[in-house]
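Structure (tokenized):
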């Protein structure tokens, strides 16, 4: 942010959006109250944006809350963990188990399966190809994954069943994975810091259990964060939405129009007799700030800037490609068993991989296999994936020693444009937890999930 004070007074900074980005921005600026006076406006009634938790039935599931959508991350999220610790909320480590595909296309990082054995030659070849990609990183930075894999003659089954699922999950890029630059794939296998699948296993592709970190209760974190920022003098205005940027100049600052929803204490009886709050009234305001920071989705920022956007802003903010995903939280075990491998499968387990004895790994899997992240290839198109999480296996507050019937799952149906490949309708409505199925708009180039 240019300059410190405006005419001897702290700069008035407007932060738009109280998700992770907006709160982190406000937190940093609030460390300098002599230089910045910070206002955060948030359209919703709470801070946290896409990261929030929902209440669940303690008696049924053994815990009173569930992190919805955002669940955890990798050890490289230093700033996130710094914030959690500062607020006295503690994430927990977990060794990640995955389960990709079903039946004869099933494989996992926990024990070798027939699919892995079938592709042993390609896995060996992939392990040196990835080294070549590392040496020629600058060139492969410009080549999409789908092109580079074909350049080295990998088979469709190897690409679709093994490579894409293992990337889609960690990059959070869903069905846009084939179009990513090759360098992103290469890093996942070769980087000791960023690489979830490092080191590559020349016989099994991935046999490590990537160390992940499970997030604490999102809503509690954001409520505490809000209060701690307010104590530092940050003004956080919920139910308040920037409508548009009216004007901006170096001399006069940024003038914005803002819609404030007014709290209503009164309620009216609904048709069913229950009391409903009156719809919130709206008030239109105009305010001026010295600086504005957009911590919203790129296309929202572009829309709010409107004709005040510079050409470079229009270009950068307009380049993000989006896909509409739908996440369903449920405990429909029949659905999960129909499409995913949730338990050790002796039919496809393999005890020898090209002369390497794998019986120890297989024996261990019989006791310990409990996948957390799962991927299904849709039957209509093997490249269209569906992702699921066994929240009970991953989130630490949920008991681990309960039968699968008591587990909570989250299934993400990717990209509404391909809705014809979805099997969302197969999830029993009475098994949907919290009675919701919520849409999430994901940038195709999102970071780790
Ligand atoms: C299903 C799903 C699962 C995910 N899982 C993970 C995970 O496990 N780990 C991980 O690290 N990341 C995960 N992510 C990604 C993560 O959620 C995002 O990267 C992060 O939450 C983005 O934060 P943000 O502050 O940039 O945006 P947001 O959280 O979207 O915050 C933007 C805020 O701006 C507000 N806003 C918008 N327009 C206006 C306006 N005009 N005026 C005022 N306020 C406005 C919105 O209401 C919102 O609160 C997941 C995402 C999804 C969708």
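Design, position by position:
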């Amino acid at each position: 942010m240019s300059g410190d004070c405006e005419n001897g007074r702290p700069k008035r900074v407007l932060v738009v959006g109280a998700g992770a980005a907006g709160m982190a921005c406000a937190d940093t600026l609030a460390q300098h109250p002599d230089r910045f006076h910070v206002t955060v406006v948030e359209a919703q009634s709470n801070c946290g944006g896409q990261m929030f938790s929902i209440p669940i039935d303690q008696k049924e599931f053994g815990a009173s809350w569930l992190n919805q959508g955002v669940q955890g991350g990798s050890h490289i999220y230093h700033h996130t963990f710094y914030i959690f610790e500062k607020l006295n909320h503690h994430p927990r480590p977990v060794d990640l188990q995955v389960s990709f595909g079903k039946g004869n296309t099933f494989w996992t990082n926990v024990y070798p399966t027939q699919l892995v054995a079938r592709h042993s030659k390609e896995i060996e070849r992939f392990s040196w190809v990835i080294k070549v990609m590392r040496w020629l990183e600058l060139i492969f930075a410009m080549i999409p994954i789908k092109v580079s894999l074909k350049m080295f003659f990998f088979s469709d089954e190897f690409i679709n069943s093994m490579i894409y699922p293992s990337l889609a999950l960690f990059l959070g890029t869903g069905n846009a994975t084939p179009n990513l630059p090759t360098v992103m794939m290469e890093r996942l296998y070769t980087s000791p810091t960023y690489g979830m699948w490092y080191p590559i296993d020349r016989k099994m592709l991935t046999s490590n259990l990537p160390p992940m970190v499970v997030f604490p209760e999102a809503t509690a974190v954001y409520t505490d964060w809000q209060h701690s920022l307010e104590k530092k003098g940050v003004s956080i205005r919920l139910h308040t939405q920037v409508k548009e940027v009216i004007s901006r100049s170096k001399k006069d600052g940024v003038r914005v129009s803002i819609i404030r929803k007014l709290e209503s204490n009164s309620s009216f009886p609904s048709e069913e007799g229950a009391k409903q709050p009156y719809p919130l009234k709206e008030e239109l305001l105009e305010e001026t700030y010295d600086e504005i920071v957009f911590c919203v989705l790129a296309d929202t920022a572009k829309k709010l800037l409107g004709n005040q956007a510079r050409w470079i802003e229009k270009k950068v903010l307009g380049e993000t490609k989006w896909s509409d995903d739908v996440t369903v939280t449920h405990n429909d075990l029949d659905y999960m068993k129909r499409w995913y491998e949730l338990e050790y499968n002796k039919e496809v387990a393999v005890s020898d991989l090209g002369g390497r004895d794998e019986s120890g790994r297989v024996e261990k899997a019989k006791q310990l296999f409990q996948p957390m992240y799962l991927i299904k290839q849709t039957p209509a198109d093997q490249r269209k994936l569906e992702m699921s999480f066994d929240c009970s296996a991953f989130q630490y507050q949920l008991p681990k020693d309960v039968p699968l019937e008591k587990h909570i799952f989250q299934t993400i149906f990717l990209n509404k444009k391909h809705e014809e490949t979805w099997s969302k309708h197969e999830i029993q409505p009475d098994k949907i937890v919290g009675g919701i199925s919520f849409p999430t708009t994901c940038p195709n180039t999102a970071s780790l999930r």
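Reviewer-requested clarification: The domain at 5-52+216-318 is CATH 3.50.50.60 (FAD/NAD(P)-binding domain). The CA atoms of residues 109 and 125 lie 19 Å apart.
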